[in-house]
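Sanity check

After download, print the first record. It should look like this:
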Amino acid sequence: MAVFGCAGCGAVLTAAVSRVALPIHLIDTHWETLHPPLLEAGSYALDPAPYGPPWRQWDEVGPDEAAERGYFAPVAALSDGPSDTVLLAPGDTRGTRLIMERAAGYCMGIDGRDGPNLACVDCDLPVGTRMDDCGCWQLVRLVPQAVVRLPGPPERPVMDWPELLATGALWHRLSTFQDIPAGVALAHVVAAAKGAPVEVAPGPLAKLLGPALGALLPAGKGAQRLDLAGPGFGEPSADLVLVPVHPQTGDIWQPRAGAVPVPMDAALWSELAFPPHQTRLPVVGGLPPGTERDDPLPPHPWYPFEPSGYAFRNTLARLPAVREPWLRALYDRGC
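Expected structure tokens:
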């Protein structure tokens, strides 16, 4: 576990927390929607990308410096803020106060537009940024230069895949935001396909990504087969396999059969690999007379599911493969 303190006076700023991989949902949000905390209570993650003001336009940064920062296609602006910020659930912070003159937001909270807005109660040093406005994940980012790591209990042991499956640890409450990890996975699949047609294995995976892949990639002979593979699921015959990313370490599960692994958020992967139990009705006749349902039918969605276009494009911008002419043309199309 880790305990972070103020670099100015040593005051404790966090509860003891265990490190997890950077949540994939950080790449996008739902506009004008109140979001839950990005991280579970008692966990933290490190974001290697620069974050916060000041911002620089793409033309000012240039492709070479942008590539050093992990961007390989033009984006609106790049941050010149600190790297390796510590991400926490807001409820895990201690000993801080809000800097009111930096507490601007859009409509329902604080969005961090003015930089660090949390100060240490004891010494008044700005130590982090809290965000909780609509369209923002509820989150606290501690500035790495303003905090120090204090002695604490040992980190929580890393669970292996069988333990993750047996304990249900792959599930998390952000599963309702499926479009974001689906958009990220879609970008990785398109890049791995290298411009060739892709045939998606029938079932939940085809429903999730099939229409989008059909719109982005050409049809025709020589299609590569896309399927799931992973712990407890096996390795079906396929050219490309979507595999889970370990929620603690960020490591990608590696197939042994020679297929190209494509990373996917572990929670979304587990929903596709092991769909939740659904009540089955008799083939004919329906329910017996006088029998009432225990549960109502699930509501129909208002519109067909689509992977997040923003998450898809933002992920492509961070893949070196986007410099290939065919993929760059797809990116520039704004897909």
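If your output differs, re-run the checksum step. Summary of this record's structure: Helices lie at 58-61, 63-68, 161-167, 179-193, 204-216, 266-273, 309-317, 325-332.
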